Amino acid sequence: MELRDLRYFAAVADTLHFGRAAERLHMTQPTLSRQIRDLEAELEVQLFYRTKRSVKLTIAGQAFLAEAQQILQHVEQAVSTTRRTARGEMGHLRLSFTNSALRSVVPKIVREFRNRYPDVQLTMTERCTHEQVEAFRAHQLDVGFLYPPVDEKLLAITPLHTETWVVALPQDHALVLRQPLTLSDLATESFILLPRREGPYLYDQIIHLCQQAGFYPNVVQEVTACQTRAGLVAVGIGIAFVPEVLQDTGNSAVVYRKLKGDAPSLQLALARRRDDDSPVVEQFCQIVAAMFQDAEVA
After folding, report:
1. Quick one: 12 and 103 in the same domain?
2. What mean pLDDT comes out for the span 95-109?
């Protein structure tokens, strides 16, 4: 028995007329009649009562119709699901992002993606760049917003925009009123930095910029979360650098100032595994590319 046999049977059962069913199926009536007889012979039951004037389902035919309709519906659903999955309209997408990306590009992109592909299950987690790279290596992540440089043999990188980092100062700090504020003005300050293992490029960049300004920073504490660094600044532990987009933390005890001249900065980028040919990932990346038309995959 093949699926076409079920379709032939269902068409006759729906129309109760071999001629109209054959026309719907684009086949001749004798061919359809033979197919139904062959099906009855295979099942060893009579599916239809036939007279010269009417066709009617038997009790066995009614039972077979209910089962056949379910099978055909399941097949149609399977075909639809398969095709939609191949187009990236269904599936699962695991997305990670840095804290600053969540406050900048991620909300708009995710809203657009969900509007276009509401049947894609989206799992979102905040991770630093180092954690994202490890998740990519472990096949636990599909796309991520992170800070290069990273392993580009593993990942395809799409640069998005550059984030400038600003200085977070206690509200009563003497440098709050200094205009303009330069990096050399921070020479005697205590620094609260992101741990190097979680952001080696940023960490090394800050050290290098400070050395260019004529001093080596006095790092008194290393903290991962920007909000925590801001909290330590508020209680006078030291000063910190945070992404400009994270200035509005709601902490009135902290003041943010831009630096004149050299200042730390990072390029935010979209990353995906080079060997990942998932249609869902492709659709997500196309949405991002459309929003950042000048972005090109490295």
Report:
1. no
2. 92
